[in-house]
From TrEMBL:
InterPro entries: His-Me_finger_sf, HNH_nuc. Keywords: Endonuclease, Hydrolase, Nuclease. SUPFAM superfamilies: His-Me finger endonucleases (SSF54060). The keyword Nuclease applies. Pfam families: HNH_3. GO terms for molecular function: endonuclease activity. It comes from viral metagenome. Residues 96-140 form the HNH nuclease domain. This is Putative homing endonuclease.
Amino acid sequence: MAALGRPKIALPTADIVARYAMGDSTYAIGLDLGVSYSTVRRRLLAAGVGMRSPGRAGGFQIGNKLGLGNYKRGGSFFATGNGYLCTSDRNGKQCALHRGCWEARHGDIPSDHVVHHADGNRQNNDIGNLVCMPMADHGRLHNLRGH
């Protein structure tokens, strides 16, 4: 038994080390194994692996867990009062995460367009759930739905 009466989890240390060496983050590895990133980190340290410097994981910025590459938005995520996930740019300006995801994959959003969440869930920023559409069409769509 481990500390606090919890059983020790058998994790594939060799696989963890190999994935980390190939650039996977402790967060991504932990997500796949069903454990926290700190558990993965402790296993790596116990195996004698030197940790990468904070703020960079496999070439991605912190705050870019979707792995879409380095883009102009980054930092911590937070939810706004209307339910959108946001981050702050380097100047402290609030930026909607779904817009950043769209721009990272498809480029700039035209000024008369918005990025719509197809399933209605404002926190589901999967690229397959995002649709760029003209503001007028977006307004009509929400008026038809009643929200």
